Structure to design on (257 residues):
């Protein structure tokens, strides 16, 4: 009987992890295009994203991931089991890695995006025009040779981004970092951002979230995109949802006006 109970519990945790990972992905929007399979070098980072989501299955808040924290809040208590279930769901989400672009392809996409924007170096502001702007966010590109983890958008570092109300915004995330996973989120939360900035507030608009993608490899720079409607005027912030990255500087202001 004990063996049967253990098997039932183990099966339940696997299902809970899978459902948890898929549910969180659905809650933050489903990015496109479809992802490719992970290569051996990419799978090294799968545990990072799984840990980010589920933690290490510990009861302490410091060792709990986002999935763990969310489930603890829902259940009203902390249990190690939720960390392990969340980790499984997070590992599933880590399979979303995007497809690589060559430097020439990245440059072409950036130039096309800049054609629909006014870039003000003096105020460090990018103002997009029209009803279908394309925002290309380069995550911590190694070519910048600057300290920390900045965003580069249309040649500016962590600029203020201005978007017309009601615009259908396409965000193209390109990971130019050679060592870390990076994602993208537009949030209602305001700085200062802590280690778990993703938990400080909900996404600003349905679909304004891209889960972390693989760092740059010899194959090129991985990318992924999403589209959302800037439905309400106001001041928001964009950031990298990976723990500690917004705190390290991967954040900026996004104004719908």
């Amino acid at each position: 009987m004990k063996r049967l109970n253990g098997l039932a519990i183990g099966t339940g945790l696997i299902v809970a992890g899978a459902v948890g990972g898929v549910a969180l992905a659905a809650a933050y929007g489903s990015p496109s295009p479809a992802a490719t399979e992970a290569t051996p070098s990419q799978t090294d980072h799968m545990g990072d994203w799984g840990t980010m989501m589920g933690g290490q299955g510990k009861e302490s808040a410091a060792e709990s991931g986002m999935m763990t924290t969310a489930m603890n809040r829902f259940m009203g208590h902390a249990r190690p089991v939720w960390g392990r279930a969340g980790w499984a769901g997070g590992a599933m989400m880590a399979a979303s890695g995007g497809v690589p672009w060559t430097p020439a392809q990245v440059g072409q996409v950036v130039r096309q995006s800049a054609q629909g924007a006014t870039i003000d170096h003096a105020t460090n502001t990018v103002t997009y025009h029209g009803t279908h702007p394309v925002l290309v966010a380069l995550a911590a590109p190694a070519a910048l040779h600057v300290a920390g983890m900045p965003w580069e958008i249309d040649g500016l570092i962590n600029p203020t981004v201005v978007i017309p109300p009601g615009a259908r915004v396409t965000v193209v995330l390109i990971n130019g970092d050679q060592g870390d996973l990076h994602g993208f989120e537009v949030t209602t939360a305001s700085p200062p951002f802590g280690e778990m900035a993703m938990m400080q507030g909900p996404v600003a608009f349905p679909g304004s979230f891209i889960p972390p993608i693989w760092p740059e490899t010899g194959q090129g720079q991985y990318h992924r995109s999403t589209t959302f409607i800037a439905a309400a005027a106001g001041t928001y912030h964009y950031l990298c949802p990976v723990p500690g990255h917004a705190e390290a500087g991967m954040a900026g202001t996004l104004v719908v006006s």
